[in-house]
Write a structure and sequence with these properties.
The complex is a heterodimer of chains A (about 375) and B (about 200). Chain A is globular and about 70 Å long. Chain A has a single domain, classed as Cytochrome-c3 Hydrogenase, chain B (Orthogonal Bundle), CATH 1.10.645. By secondary structure, chain A is α+β, with helices and mostly antiparallel strands. Helices cover about 45% and strands about 15% of the residues of chain A. In chain A, the strands form 3 sheets. Chain A has a 3-stranded antiparallel beta sheet with strand order 1-2-3. A 3-stranded antiparallel beta sheet of chain A has the order 6-7-8. Chain A has a two-stranded antiparallel ribbon with strand order 4-5. Chain B has 2 domains: about 140 residues, NADH:ubiquinone oxidoreductase Nqo5 subunit (Beta Polymerase, domain 2, 2-Layer Sandwich), CATH 3.30.460; about 35 residues, no CATH class. Chain B starts with 8 loop residues before the first helix and ends with a helix. Chain B is built from 7 helices and 7 strands, in the order αββαββββαβαααα. Helix content of chain B is about 30%, strand content about 25%. Classes of the chains: A alpha+beta (about 375), B alpha/beta (about 200). At the A-B interface, helix 1, strand 6, strand 7, strand 8 and helix 12 of A face strand 3 and helix 3 of B.
Chain lengths: ~375, ~200
């Protein structure tokens, strides 16, 4: 006899993600038969607002598109404007940008680690990882004045130069974080509970992954080695030495290990950046922000964020304000079409784990 | 910036292949690994299918829409990426604003369904063949689609929201504070503006 189906509303507040999003589940027993994503709790009409603001006024808006990792947004918009205008960026600014991007990637991975372990019931990890993330936020506070939203990367360069003694502080923080990673291994990645909950759960089909629009750690967790930093190097990534870790399996475990290995790579990139950073200007003068006409044109720029390819399609019509800025967040695909498909057949208790391992971030789905 | 002196073999070969198949297409190499293809609207579905199946552009990176209200047209923009060739193809077409209708491409990429739902909601474009054009981001929306250029955000805010008494619009908050408490607050913006400092 077929089991009776029940509707279960999972969310909008739940431990699986940063933000509010609801998944309407049809369950038989505790197996999911159908899943439907419902967003709309965080819509702030950023794209519409930006059409009515100057280019410079758009920078404080874009960083709010993603809470755990705002910097790829700023960098994307800055690079899009520079590309349409043909504006040069000083070499020093490019190095500073890469440093900020990698620091924000580390901060985002710490937040992910807390969420991922929390959904498996390991509640010590969130306490540790959110605490360690705060050391990175302290660096951001000193550099930019803001802990979460930085508004630091602007078209033409970055807003301020590094404060005195800042590189040493970054290196000390990196040493500390590196010394902490083995402890996280013992607590989380080598933990039998986590392994049992992560292996073989939430599997993405390797043959279909590219076609389905899977990007970032979930793609590399399928054993496919693609990273925007290598495929289409932006800023100074082509001058840095790093590898793109991959894992086979396509499950939560593979995605977790990809992120764990990438943390080591990020630390190494930050050290290289500080070693190679040239002196000189950190900002090329731009016109008066209130009188800044960007020539007509369009561009698509992308960065590798902690969750995958983050793209901006930007159109300028030659006026003071952007004609269209359309954001492509990785969660747009991961959180709707992919999630709805891989949740089918999963257990209710694994929903939050699967969601977190895909890096679903509702603010970038609805913006 | 972007190095245009790089070897553009992949780009040129792709352009050549598209040219040979779609004679009416306007093709432009924007820069290294960016090709813009402008097509007639009825050629878009065959082009996307061709690009996916024959040219290995199997990643639908983005699907966007731009409202060119002065031309009374919507521009639909499909961004395809090929992991093999490392090229983004920006395929564009224009449809009339008066007859905002297009065909779905969800049979080619299933994630296109989500993009089409958003564009349906924000621009009011109907995608025939997509049976899931239901409410996505907005809730109980009965105004004109909000991302259209003729949607007036300020008027919408005026009609739907009210200001707290004493904070009516265009009022300087400093004046209100001065009136209530008698404390004079300097106008920093005026005093220290770039013009005054000069």
């Amino acid at each position: 006899m077929r089991e009776k189906e029940t509707t279960l509303y999972f969310g909008p507040q739940h431990p699986g993600i940063t933000g509010n999003m609801m998944v309407k589940l049809k369950v038989a027993g505790d197996t999911i038969v159908k899943a439907e994503t419902h967003v709309g709790y965080l819509h702030r009409a950023f794209e519409k607002l930006m059409e009515q603001r100057t280019w410079m006024q758009s920078f404080p808006i874009v960083c709010r598109i993603c809470v755990p990792e705002p910097d790829p947004n700023e960098e994307n918009l800055a690079r899009a404007v520079e590309e349409i205008e043909g504006r040069e960026v000083p070499e020093r600014a490019k190095y500073i940008r890469v440093m900020v991007l990698e620091l924000s990637r580390l901060a985002a991975y710490f937040l992910w680690m807390g969420g991922q372990a929390g959904t498996a019931g390991l509640y010590t990890v969130p306490q540790w990882s959110v605490g360690d993330r705060d050391y990175i936020l302290d660096l951001f506070e000193e550099l930019t004045g803001g802990r979460i939203y930085h508004m630091y990367i602007w078209a033409g360069g970055v807003r301020r130069d590094l404060p005195g003694g800042f590189p040493d502080k970054v290196l000390r923080t990196m040493d500390y974080i590196e010394s902490r990673l083995p402890e996280y291994d013992k607590l989380m990645f080598e933990n039998a509970i986590f392994q049992k909950r992560a292996k073989g759960i939430g599997v993405i089909d390797k043959d279909k992954a590219m076609e389905w629009g899977v990007v970032g750690p979930p793609l590399r967790g399928c054993g496919i080695q693609h990273d925007v930093r290598k495929d289409e190097p932006y800023e100074v990534y082509d001058k840095l030495d790093f590898v793109v870790p991959t894992y086979e399996g396509g499950d939560i475990w593979a995605r977790a290990m990809v992120r764990r290995k990438e943390m080591e790579q990020s630390i190494s990139i930050i050290r290289q950046v500080i070693e190679k950073m040239p002196g000189g200007e950190y900002y090329n003068k731009v016109p008066n922000p209130l009188n800044w006409y960007v020539p007509p044109g369009e561009t698509y720029v992308k960065t590798e964020s902690a969750r995958g390819e983050f793209g901006y399609y930007v159109v300028s019509d030659g006026s003071l304000k952007p004609r269209r800025i359309h954001v492509r967040g990785p969660a747009y695909v991961h959180g709707v079409s992919l999630l709805e498909n891989i949740l089918v057949g999963a257990n209710i208790s694994d929903v939050a784990m699967i969601m977190n391992s895909l890096g679903v971030c509702p603010p970038e789905i609805e913006r | 910036m972007i190095n245009m002196n790089k070897n553009l073999y992949n780009e040129n070969q792709t352009i050549e292949e598209i040219k040979n198949t779609f004679h009416t297409a306007e093709i432009k190499l924007q820069r290294e690994s960016r090709i813009i293809v402008k097509l007639r609207s009825d050629l878009i579905p065959p082009f996307l299918s061709y690009a996916k199946n024959y040219l290995a552009f199997n990643h639908l990176a983005h699907f966007s829409c731009v409202d060119w209200i002065e031309d009374n047209e919507f521009e639909l923009v499909y961004l395809l990426y090929s992991y093999e060739k490392n090229i983004v193809v920006i395929a564009k077409t224009r449809i009339s604003r008066d007859k905002a209708e297009f065909v779905t491409i969800k049979h080619l990429w299933r994630q296109a369904e989500t993009y089409e739902r958003e564009i349906h909601e924000m621009f009011g474009i109907n995608f025939t063949g997509n049976d899931r054009l239901n409410e996505f981001i907005l809730e109980d929306w009965d105004d004109i689609p909000p991302m259209r250029r003729d949607f007036n955000t300020i008027q919408f805010a005026k009609d739907n929201f009210y200001t707290r008494p004493g904070r009516e619009d265009a009022q300087d908050v400093r004046e209100t504070i001065t009136k209530k408490s008698g404390e004079k607050i300097p106008d920093f913006a005026k005093e220290f503006s770039v013009r005054n400092l000069k």
